[in-house]
Amino acid sequence: MGFQHPDISAFPEISLVIGEERARAGSGADWAHVYPGTGRVTREVRLASPADVDRAVAAARAAQPAWRALAGDKRRDLMFRLAAVIESKAAEMSPLLTAENGAILIAGGHMTADAAQKFRYYGGMADKIDGRTVSTWGGPALDYVMYEPYGTVGIIVPWNGPLFAATMVMAPALAAGNCVVLKAPELAPWSLMKLMEAVHEAGFPAGVVNMVTGGPDVGAAMVSHPGIDKIEFIGSGATAQKILASASQSLKPVGLELGGKSAVLVFADANLQGAAKRGLSGAISASGQGCVNGTRLLVERAIYEPYLQMLKAMAGHVKVGDPFAMDTFVGPVISQAALERIDGMVRRGIEQGGEAICGGAPMDGDHAEGYFYPITVLAGVDPASEISKNEVFGPVLVVTPFDSEEEAVALANGTDYGLGAYVHTTNLARAHRVAGQMMAGQVQVNGSGEAMTPCVPFGGMKHSGHGRLGGIEGLREFQQVRNVWVNLQD
Ligand code: NAD
Fold first, then answer.
1. Annotated catalytic, 100?
2. C-beta 360 within 6 A of ligand 1
3. Ligand 1 contacts CB of residue 219 (under 6 A)
């Protein structure tokens, strides 16, 4: 029988937005989108080609002078209007978010509200882009700093949260006065197509926001395109290496938001129940396919056994299944290839001494038609093993005991990644002391995702990337600095 398959009659049609043009098809190859909940094709999309990228860049560049010159209050008003239109489409957006990558339906309202809030937050900055004056040395002079847009920003996002990722770039880039060319990922294109409807309805001038739906060839064409002034890339480290190799030729600035293997440190003085609940939900949300999920739990030995038992009991109450069902918390992973990768990593983790407290093998029955993996908690895993060091991108968490604060910090910092870190303790001094030692772009104390709001700078250290999206830092990513020095002597 299987799980519910998406109703494609409500899917948006426009996969290409280039200036005034809004087309159903690009000029590239056909792509059959597969819904991960059933493993069946939903609809075919004719993707964009590098030639479409050329036209999108030309449209963005043509729109740039007027958009940059538009008074800040007008840009603000348009962005506020866009926020309202997005909110008005929440009911249509939620099933698309599920249909594109199997995200659970109950998260759709939050994701849509978050997208709207980003445009409101940065819309509120669009009319406050002030420079500053600088005190000078030497003779009398006036010196001031101006924050200028780059021009055209290329945005490349992954399939795991396209609406979240695209809006966290679009909102500050537009507020700063840039035009954008956005690539919707072929694996999950529907929510961004819907977003383009909202941009149109909000009344943005043609060419300010352009979208091409496409795969790696389209992304690569954007990166090498001389008409794109800055690239913001959200995705894997492997792709980032290719992008940086290409950008080494053009010297184009590239912002990178990459993967993570975020540690969760649970000290014996923590609120255990809360730390277990947050430890579990923070690891398995989005089926474990979140860049900043805390998937490496480090637990003080004194509470290790009771904590594991709590995790196991809580995991047993979480429903893994049809993402359209309102009581489901964990849906499928994106593809058969992902399922096999996850299972392979789990098997090797067990071979290397890990014990599966729950899960540990693919699911059968209705689940076997889609790409479902059970919640898997691996205990006693060697912190140097593959599964402890690398992103699994599935509902899998590893748990390792520690004996001292010093050891916990060393273990937490012991991977190449540096995106998030979570510290659970009721000791105020320890909370700040440990937070200050985390080699991670975002540390949450007694939290598991609540910090992810538009006002907070988000980004990575080490192999998790550089640059920040969110907050005033997010605006600065899309501004370049001009300094003006004026001689005040004759
Ligand atoms: P990916 O790197 O395979 O693809 C990301 C995007 O890059 C896609 O749109 C893809 O079409 C495009 N692309 C592929 N090859 C390209 C090339 N040579 N040039 C230009 N573009 C190219 O990543 P994915 O599998 O889609 O996403 C999962 C990864 O993204 C995970 O590592 C996850 O942690 C990371 N991620 C990071 C954040 C963050 O904010 N730090 C957010 C979400 C996801």
1. no
2. no
3. yes
Residue 173 contacts residue 153 (beta carbons within 8 Å): yes
The answer to whether residue 164 is domain-embedded is yes
Instruction: Tell me the C-alpha to C-alpha distance, in Å, between residue 264 and each of 212, 330, 397.
Output: 38, 20, 10
Q: Decide if 462 is inside a domain.
A: no
Domain that holds residue 50: 8-258+467-482
CA distance 368 to 362: 8
Nearest CA to ligand 1 atom 12: 216
- Given a cut of 70, the residues of the chain with pLDDT beneath it are 1
Q: What's the pTM?
A: 0.98
Q: Which two tokens stand for residue 457?
A: 């700078």
For residue 215, being part of any structural domain is answered with yes
Asked if 441 contacts 419 with a C-beta cutoff of 8 angstroms, the reply is: yes
Query: pLDDT by residue (tens digit) across 403-443?
Result: 999 999 999 999 999 999 999 999 999 999 999 999 999 99
Cβ 236 under 6 angstroms from ligand 1: yes
Q: How confident is the model at residue 368, as a pLDDT?
A: 95
Tens of pLDDT, residue by residue over 120-170, are: 999 999 999 999 999 999 889 999 999 999 999 999 999 999 999 999 999
Instruction: Give backbone dihedrals phi and psi of 296, rounded to 5 degrees, phi first.
Output: -120, 100
The domain that holds 42 is classified in CATH as 3.40.605.10
pLDDT at 279: 97
How many domains is the chain built from?
Answer: 2
Report yes or no on 200 lying in a domain: yes
Nearest CA to ligand 1 atom 43: 291
Active-site residue, selected from the candidate residues 257, 300, 391, 477 = 257
Looking at the structure, tell me whether residues 128 and 219 fall in a common domain: yes
Q: Which residue, judged by its Cα, is nearest atom 26 of ligand 1?
A: 158
Q: Which amino acid is at 300?
A: E
47, 114, 156, 157: residue to mutate for ligand 1 pocket, most atoms within 8 A of CB: 156
CATH number of the domain encompassing residue 383: 3.40.309.10
Task: Tell me: do 154 and 290 sit in the same domain.
Answer: no
pLDDT digits (tens, 9 = 90+) for 309-334: 999 999 999 999 999 999 999 999 99
